[in-house]
Amino acid sequence: MLVIIGCGNSNRQDDGAGIYVAQQLMSLMKVNPVDEVRVFDAGTAGMDIMFQARGCDALIIIDANQSTSDPGTIFEVPGFELENISEPSYNLHDFRWDNALYAGRRIYQEQFPTDITVFLIEAENLNLGIGLSEPVQKASDRVLELIIKRINCYSQQ
User: Coil, strand, or helix at residue 36?
Assistant: First the structure.
């Protein structure tokens, strides 16, 4: 099974890039369902990622990124490179998807996927507001195309 999870906060403009991609995929899957493919909008709930990924063969995570790269830059990174131990906190909101990858692998062991791809889309604006900036919208649509190709390949296996 292939699990695809969009992350972010759609109330913070470009931080909604992962959510946008997941919602587009969910709409497509309603019209053309593909057995063995599940799509989730995790929002900012990192803990949910750990639970949704358990038992799948492959996992794709999509989220916004903030670095010094040009807005709309797409990074495709193997998940094992981004696993990160969680810092102690009293707030579960601080448990992010990178923490979920780390914890999930240790808790679920062989039931946690090893085939993990993370698409990060460089944000232009993370201020409060609705809607993606133009470069992030274009990049999100490109990531959507790339994932649809993977779904098609996965469904033909």
Answer: coil
Lookup: tokens for 128: 């409060």
**Residue 25: in which H helix or E strand, if any?**
helix 17-31
> 77: number of CA atoms within 13 Å, CB side?
18
Asked whether the beta carbons of 100 and 42 are under 8 A apart, the reply is no
pTM for this entry: 0.92
- CATH 3.40.50.1450 given to domain 2-82+93-155: yes
100 and 50 in contact (C-beta within 8 Å)?
yes
Look-up: residue for tokens 């990858």?
101
Give tens-digit pLDDT for 4-41.
999 999 999 999 999 999 999 999 999 999 989 999 99
